[in-house]
Design goal:
elongated; binds heme C
């Protein structure tokens, strides 16, 4: 009988750990990045990343264009901005920026 409360506690802790892990994981996952892309980036880069002449953005579905910048450069541009692109340092976490840089690679056809 005396072991029961202990067991309950352990289960509760395990459940909490799982919930916290899943919550943290969802922030870094692609679905989150895809959402951010649509709400914050598509206005200039297009929903599929094809670019918009009016915004002077390049076609990220092209392998040649994708080869023009490294992941590090993409992260730096999203973090600090690059005229006319705004900086997202105060709006997105480092993990969200990293996930976006990875998401951009998936736009390549
Ligand atoms: C106000 C318009 C605008 C918005 C909003 C914008 N960008 Fe850009 N972005 C540009 C322009 C212009 C360039 C330079 C031309 C190009 O590479 O397409 C650029 C370049 C980039 C590059 C290339 C980096 C490099 O070093 O060459 C990446 C990656 C990028 N943007 C990602 C994003 C992401 C992610 C978002 C949303 C969080 C975003 N951009 C929002 C206009 C914008």
């Amino acid at each position: 009988m005396s072991a029961k409360p202990m067991k309950k506690h352990t289960l509760l802790r395990a459940a909490l750990t799982i919930i916290i892990t899943l919550t943290l994981a969802s922030f870094a996952c692609g679905a989150e990045a895809a959402d951010t892309w649509k709400t914050k980036c598509a206005v200039c880069h297009g929903p599929e990343g094809k670019g918009k002449p009016a915004a002077h953005t390049q076609d990220y579905t092209s392998a040649d264009v994708q080869a023009k910048f490294t992941d590090e450069e993409a992260i730096k541009t999203i973090t600090d901005g690059k005229k006319p692109m705004p900086s997202y340092k105060d709006k997105l976490s480092a993990d969200e920026i990293k996930a976006l840089a990875a998401y951009i690679r998936t736009l390549k056809k």
